[in-house]
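Quick illustration for those who missed Monday's session on complexes.
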Amino acid sequence: MPEPWARHWTVSNPGWKENSETEFAMALIVQKYGGTSVGSVERIEAVADKIIRFREQGDDIVVVVSAMSGETNRLTALAREMMDQPTPREMDVLLSTGEQVTIALLCMALEKRGFSARSFTGGQVKILTDTSHTKARIREIDGTRIHAQLEQGNVVVVAGFQGVDDQGNITTLGRGGSDTTAVALAAALEADECQIYTDVKGVYTTDPRVVDDARLLTSITFEEMLELASLGAKVLQIRSVEFAGKYKVPLRVLSSFEDGPGTLITLEEESDMEDPAIAGIAFERDEAKLTVAGVPDVPGIAYKVIGPVSEAGIEVDVIVQNAAADGSNDISFTVKRAESDRAHKIITDVAASLKAREVDVDTRICKVSLVGVGMRSHAGIASKMFKALADEGINIQIITTSEIKISVVIEEKYLELAVRALHSAFDLGDPESPARSIED
Ligand code: ADP
Ligand code: ASP
Ligand code: MG
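Prediction with adenosine-5'-diphosphate bound:
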């Protein structure tokens, strides 16, 4: 028996005909359309038509939109032209404008079609965040105004990615943040479901832009989706998955351009589901590896090296420490590539004070990860992974594991090769159809 909301979805999505005879009560649906889906006036018009198909079935619709594709990058580049390190507060004032354009255009498209719609910025519907500009976290949403608008029969269109802090300053939620706006709104409004419409048909075994025969998943557990998102699969922002898990928001990823059921993010592992060891492969390109070689092998040394980097607000990802026979120690760790210069400066000072032999930065690395809850019950995954990479002559620089993932750091030039080799070694492909449906 499907979840009630999954059942609901089958009737409320007019494009997916299965079970469509059954009648269900009106629902409240939050839909989010990403940058490519609203990338031109024509595409915004197509989104308006899609929303109307739901509206005509009697559903209440709250829409969250991203900026038109390329707009957030364009605004970021403008800021960088102005100064090297723009203040985060002004960055947020600038970046939040992208979404404001889209909400207005979408409402115009709906009004042109005879449907009443109202656009709102994050501040206007009181999406209250903390003050961490450019990476703010949502604290609270007051749904009163949205509910009142819905009661008047309006489609409500909310700007994604933005909120306000308690002083009224505009904040943004980090790249990909409109996903989080949508899921947080769905939680606050107690929506029947949250649908994330994007430029691929759902969540695949890996990025379908890298592997042609990546397979579309009908469902994936929250736990796996959380790992994939945190390890680089940008199809959902990690915070949105966290919200969906915490507030039990029924969440589905689907295509804006083609009808279909997409991928359901499930709360539980379904017991009758076949139990593949691996759900998917994620990768992160923008990493850098820093090494401090020849420091003394004594207690507290890792803290002395890593501590100052973390204290500077730089997120340290993978860490390895190797003690050599001569009593010295090498410590390597990875950070986001954009932070590597800052991290390098910090550890150069630390290395001098510790009389380290050498400091090295490598910005041509990447991280590839296998994810699957089935790893708990399947043995031999790691050795199969290492063999697949060895067969391609790919050297592994760092390995890290957790209960449901194995990550390796390798040279960036091997990224595509590694992902494809692992995808085929673990039989993740879809032999039937290269399942791609990508719009740019
Ligand atoms: P949007 O603008 O709609 O938010 P994004 O570009 O943020 O879209 O996310 C969708 C993209 O995520 C896809 O075009 C795809 O290239 C990428 N992606 C990475 N990993 C996956 C995956 N496992 N499944 C689906 N898409 C993925
Ligand atoms: N426009 C923002 C970005 O490009 C937020 C989003 O699209 O989710 O990251
Ligand atoms: Mg996105």
